[in-house]
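Try this one yourself first.
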């Protein structure tokens, strides 16, 4: 069996990245600060700071804070989008006005500036990376692609590089660029996401690349983790489940909504960033129905909607702001400390995999072997 041979060759991902457990905390922008990253790392997983949208001075301060709270390895999540349309950026020019159909939702605040965070700007992301290298951060995690020069720089700086992908094609491209670990992130995932469901995506990518593959998208408990390992994954990366922890910087309104969510409460929408992202469906996403052609490319879409969305997010508005959330939210019914989430997930997965021996025995007894079939 190819998959088990491959896993035997590189082991579970903690052996590759230097943690105690094969569980990674997702690099969630605005949510995964030093509190969450340190808690996940101290629990034996790999806590990854969601730093794609922070000004460089804050990147340094938060890395140092995480270091004070944990002696275990940590990671940093940055974005170097492969196909942004920088020429569409409105930074330095006047942003396009909000389309008329959005004006009834609320009044944009013209003083909101996206200049400081410039989430999708490669130059600013490179500055953040230099800080992470200087601070000795062990792992770089990138969604939306990672250029070869960034992989090389991170490696020279002593970091391992993890690339989050949503398709087989993107996994092969990341492998060719020299990354160390692939995260195969299924359609269920919160945030930017691809079109293929986890159940199909994980084994497809395991078969396609030689690198360790970490599974993501919809994993909220030990059942998901056990299933991912059985499909050939070398570990799991968890986002949505960790939103409902005291250590995550999740807005209270988001947490309250998360633990009560129904299965069709999320939608994949380009209306916030210009690229498909799974978010909570609300008045903002609904308002774009029939106006899809007005969505601008990344980063211009974000720059256009920020004056409406940023103040709404600060106010905790569930109707006007972007709340990246995965379908796995329906499996999250209560808040619990990050360490407990990680421990219970790993324990439950181990227990389920042990039960697999009994299932295997029953299945083998039920399946006719070749000799009896021939008779
Ligand atoms: C609130 C939130 C913010 C996210 N922000 C980022 C980000 O800044 N960069 C990134 O690479 N991925 C981001 N993601 C995606 C996660 O890294 C991860 O792939 C995803 O959460 C895994 O699926 P799950 O939510 O089903 O666990 C975000 C996800 C959520 C839920």
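Now uncover the answer:
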């Amino acid at each position: 069996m190819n998959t088990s041979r491959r896993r035997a060759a590189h082991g579970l991902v903690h052996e590759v990245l230097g943690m105690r457990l094969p569980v990674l905390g997702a690099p969630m922008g605005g949510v995964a600060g030093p509190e969450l990253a340190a808690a996940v790392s101290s629990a034996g997983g790999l806590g990854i700071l969601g730093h794609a949208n922070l000004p460089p001075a804050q990147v340094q301060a938060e890395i140092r804070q995480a270091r004070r709270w944990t002696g275990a390895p940590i990671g940093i999540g940055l974005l170097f989008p492969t196909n942004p349309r920088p020429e569409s950026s409105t930074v330095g020019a006047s942003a396009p006005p909000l389309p008329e159909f959005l004006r009834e939702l609320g009044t944009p605040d013209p003083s909101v500036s996206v200049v400081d965070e410039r989430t999708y700007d490669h130059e600013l992301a490179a500055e953040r990376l230099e800080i992470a290298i200087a601070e000795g951060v062990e792992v770089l995690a990138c969604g939306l692609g990672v250029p070869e020069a960034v992989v090389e720089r991170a490696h020279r700086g002593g970091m391992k590089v993890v690339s989050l992908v949503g398709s087989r094609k993107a996994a092969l491209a990341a492998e060719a660029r020299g990354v160390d670990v692939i995260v195969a992130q299924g359609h269920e995932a919160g945030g930017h996401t691809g079109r293929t469901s986890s159940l199909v995506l994980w084994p497809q990518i395991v078969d396609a690349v030689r690198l360790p593959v970490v599974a993501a998208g919809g994993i909220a408990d030990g059942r998901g983790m056990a299933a991912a390992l059985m499909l050939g994954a070398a570990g799991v990366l968890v986002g949505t489940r960790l939103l409902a922890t005291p250590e995550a910087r999740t807005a209270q309104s988001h947490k309250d909504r998360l633990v009560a969510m129904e299965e069709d409460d999320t939608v994949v929408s380009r209306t916030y960033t210009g690229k498909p992202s799974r978010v909570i469906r609300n008045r903002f996403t609904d308002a774009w129905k029939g106006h899809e052609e007005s969505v601008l490319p990344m980063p211009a879409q974000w720059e256009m909607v920020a004056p409406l969305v940023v103040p709404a997010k600060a106010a905790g508005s569930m109707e006007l702001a972007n709340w990246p959330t995965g379908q796995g939210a329906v499996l999250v019914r209560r808040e619990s400390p990050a360490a407990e989430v990680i421990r219970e997930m790993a324990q439950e997965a181990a227990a389920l995999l042990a039960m697999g021996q009994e299932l295997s025995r029953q299945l083998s007894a039920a399946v006719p072997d070749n000799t009896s079939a021939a008779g």
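Discussion: The longest helix spans residues 338-366. The chain has a mean pLDDT of 92.
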